[in-house]
Design brief:
Elements lengths: L7 H17 L7 H39 L1
């Protein structure tokens, strides 16, 4: 099975579509678990992006400190 990677804009577009479906249907509540899952995926993506930013900053700072000590 092929793994799919979704972007923030993909997830947000699907959340928008689901919100319209949920709001527009009497039985829209049945789609709530899917909506919640997509919200969780978006939060995880944002956390991963934040983690990567923090890691890259630390790596750059470490490199800067290492070169400053060597000089």
């Amino acid at each position: 099975m092929k793994s799919m990677t979704y972007t923030r804009s993909n997830i947000e577009a699907k959340l928008d579509q689901l919100a319209q479906i949920i709001a527009g249907r009497e039985d829209g509540r049945v789609f709530l678990p899917l909506y919640q899952r997509l919200e969780a995926e978006l939060a995880a993506l944002e956390t991963a992006e934040s983690d990567m930013d923090r890691i890259l900053r630390r790596a750059a700072d470490t490199r800067d400190r290492k070169f400053a000590i060597a000089a």
